[in-house]
Amino acid sequence: GKPDPILVVDQMTRTFGGITAVQVEHLEVQRGIITALIGPNGAGKTTFFNLITGFDKPSSGRDASWSFDGRKLDRTSASRVAKAGMVRTFQLTKALSRMTVMDNMMLGASGQRGENLAASMIRPLWRSQENQVEEKAVELLGRFKLHEKRNDFAGSLSGGQRKLLEMARALMTDPTMIMLDEPMAGVNPALTQSLLGHVQSLRDEGMTVLFVEHDMHVVRHISDWVVVMAEGKVVAEGDSSTVMSNPAVIDAYLGAH
Ligand code: ATP
After folding, report:
1. Which residues have CB under 6 Å of ligand 1?
2. 246 or 148: which carries more pLDDT confidence?
3. What is the four-CA torsion angle of 205, 211, 214, 216, rounded to 10 degrees?
4. Residue 14, beta-bridge partner list
């Protein structure tokens, strides 16, 4: 169909010392579809996620600019990005593992990453929330079949349940676009289908999905569009069969294996 970009990124660079992690000239993510971001280890995918969601800042030098849903997002904090409707999942950190599933959900509502927050800091935050927020958490935990686990420590969940929780907590802010960081990593094959089904349902409900994934079966199975990154740059994009048969992609991608 006609292009309808929800996210537009221009001239985004991030260097760490001498390493250029991200060097994106132009990238668009189209509304309402599932886009996969693939590329070898160290290609800059995670750094790119951090940059567009306000958890990291581009290096100065060139004028990076990006907009989401028609709103300029450069120089905006992570919580404002979440309010604008774009959230990302985070792999469960140590601190989050020591919190209950429900505390993780309530933290999700704040749009914060929470890696430096202890449970004792979450509780007051939770008390200050409206009942509505708690209701939403309960509803999402039901949807992702985690309701019975609500009082368990997140660290006690299986790999697949953790991924479900990561998704559920990101949905607490009612995003229009969700960014999933390796949603299938460490997931038992029995739960893979169910997770894929959840991702497709989000898309079918009108949400835009951008995900980073190393498992090419997963990428082929659910992506409407694939963007390939290597050495911080977008090197190819297209529908999955076109991209996967592109010799430059095979080179860049298989180079890492
Ligand atoms: P993977 O698929 O392994 O997760 P990736 O595509 O997500 O890799 P990044 O994690 O974004 O890649 O890393 C891109 C480059 O930036 C790598 O060379 C990495 O070592 C470097 N890098 C990322 N974060 C930092 C940091 N905080 N300090 C220094 N270098 C970093």
Report:
1. 16, 19, 21, 39, 41-47
2. 148
3. 40
4. 22
How far is ligand 1, taken at its centre, from the CA of residue 203, in Å? Answer: 28
Work out which ligand 1 atom sits closest to the CA atom of 232. 14
Write the ipTM: 0.97
Ligand 1 atom with minimal separation from the 48 CA = 11
> Alpha carbon 53 to chain centroid distance?
9
In whole angstroms, give the CA distance from residue 236 to residue 8: 16
Residue 162 CA to ligand 1 center (angstroms) comes to 23
pLDDT above 90 (res 73): no
How far is residue 213's CA from residue 210's CA, in Å, rounded to a whole number? Answer: 10
Expressed in angstroms and rounded, the spacing between residue 22 Cα and the centre of ligand 1 is 9
Q: What SS3 state is found at 232?
A: coil
Q: Is 227 helix (H, G, I), strand (E, B) or coil?
A: strand
Q: Whose CA is nearest to atom 26 of ligand 1?
A: 16
Q: pLDDT averaged over the chain?
A: 87
Q: How far is the CA of 182 from the centre of ligand 1 (A)?
A: 14
DSSP for 8-61, written as a single string: EEEEEEEEETTEEEEEEEEEEEETTSEEEEE-STTSSHHHHHHHHTTSS---TT
Terminal CA-CA length for the chain: 35
Question: Nearest C-alpha to atom 9 of ligand 1 is from which residue?
Answer: 44
Q: 128 C-alpha to center of ligand 1: Å?
A: 37
Say if residue 205's pLDDT is above 90: yes
Which amino acid, 45? K
Task: Characterize 169-199 residue by residue with b for buried, 16 or more Cβ atoms within 10 angstroms of its Cβ, and e for exposed.
Answer: bbbbbebbbbbbbbbbeebeeebbeebbebb
